[in-house]
């Protein structure tokens, strides 16, 4: 079975749903620091603090998982408010899972990295798999260190750990919390709720993004891939669609002509966004395991608004 740690978050909640569909409810044990609003019948949930190594061990002994997905982390914007807590959660949470995976011979591990591992001196356009990486957010620093640990545990202990550098993820089922790319989710919610949105990132701030459906499918494809094909054991670049707040607002106006966007300035998240790439080269993932995104800006915008019209009515 699969043990998922951090299953209530933006990615965890949708990855859990996809894994339940693929493997059955009884084979997906979800966990997070607190109970979710609702647990559907047949779903298995355990409260778990990823910093409590004994508690993780107890769940491994109880359920004997063959795979662990570690999605618990503090994202970039919240991390800048509580850097020590972000480092502790992101690093010691990962180390607990890595050590227990070696101790119990867990077959496969998934751990998400982020385009936040790139920094001011990384190439901004078509950012390659390998390049200068000088992240200056505690979140990015913890993800870069995490990538080094993943590769080390693979080389030294033979751990089959797999990872992708997610761009900003766009989804409608669960609102994200504490990220810099969250504007690109909130804009859709506000477009339906208010017909207008004030962006905390400037109109020309281009960032790499990926629609949740593509992110979930790509993650499962990576986990299903033949390990001999995987040349990267730090974390794979993944690319979807790069756009600016201005461009996404224009796309929304094609469906909601009265939508209005405005911009606030000197938001602390602007400097985080400015340190990140504008677009990502994901050639290695495409050639190693056949990665390919399917949603473009138009398709993503339509899917988001169609679903939010129902969800928010
Ligand atoms: C964040 N959504 O904004 C996350 C992600 C690339 C962005 O890491 O912190």
UniProtKB/TrEMBL annotation:
<protein>
    <submittedName>
        <fullName>NAD-dependent epimerase/dehydratase family protein</fullName>
    </submittedName>
</protein>
<feature type="domain" description="NAD-dependent epimerase/dehydratase">
    <location>
        <begin position="2"/>
        <end position="225"/>
    </location>
</feature>
<dbReference type="Pfam" id="PF01370">
    <property type="entry name" value="Epimerase"/>
</dbReference>
<dbReference type="InterPro" id="IPR036291">
    <property type="entry name" value="NAD(P)-bd_dom_sf"/>
</dbReference>
<dbReference type="InterPro" id="IPR001509">
    <property type="entry name" value="Epimerase_deHydtase"/>
</dbReference>
<comment type="similarity">
    <text>Belongs to the NAD(P)-dependent epimerase/dehydratase family.</text>
</comment>
<dbReference type="InterPro" id="IPR051225">
    <property type="entry name" value="NAD(P)_epim/dehydratase"/>
</dbReference>
């Amino acid at each position: 079975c699969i043990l998922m740690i951090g299953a209530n978050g933006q990615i965890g909640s949708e990855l859990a749903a996809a894994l339940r569909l693929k493997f059955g409810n009884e084979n997906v044990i979800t966990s997070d620091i607190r109970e979710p609003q609702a647990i559907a019948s047949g779903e298995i949930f355990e409260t778990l603090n990823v910093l409590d190594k004994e508690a993780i061990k107890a769940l491994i002994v109880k359920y004997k998982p063959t795979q662990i997905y570690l999605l618990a982390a503090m994202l970039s914007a919240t991390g800048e408010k509580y850097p020590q807590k972000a480092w502790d959660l992101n690093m010691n949470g990962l180390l607990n899972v890595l050590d227990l995976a070696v101790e119990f011979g867990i077959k496969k591990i998934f751990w998400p990295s982020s385009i936040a591992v790139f920094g001011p001196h990384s190439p901004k356009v078509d950012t390659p798999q390998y390049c200068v990486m000088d992240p200056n957010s505690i979140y990015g620093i913890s993800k870069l260190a995490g990538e080094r640990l993943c590769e080390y545990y693979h080389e030294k202990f033979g751990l089959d750990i797999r990872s992708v550098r997610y761009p900003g993820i766009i989804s409608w089922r669960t609102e994200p919390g504490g990220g810099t790319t969250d504007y690109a989710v909130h804009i859709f919610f506000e477009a339906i709720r208010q017909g207008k949105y004030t962006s905390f990132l400037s109109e020309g701030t281009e960032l790499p993004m990926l629609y949740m459906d593509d992110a979930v499918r790509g993650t499962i494809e990576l986990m299903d891939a033949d390990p001999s094909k995987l040349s990267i054991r730090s974390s794979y670049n993944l690319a979807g669609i790069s756009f600016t707040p201005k461009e996404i607002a224009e796309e929304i106006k094609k469906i909601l002509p009265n939508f209005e966007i405005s911009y606030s300035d000197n938001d602390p998240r602007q400097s985080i966004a400015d340190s990140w790439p504008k677009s990502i080269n994901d050639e290695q993932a495409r050639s190693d395991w056949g990665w390919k995104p399917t949603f473009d800006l138009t398709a993503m915008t339509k899917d988001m608004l169609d679903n939010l019209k129902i969800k928010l009515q």
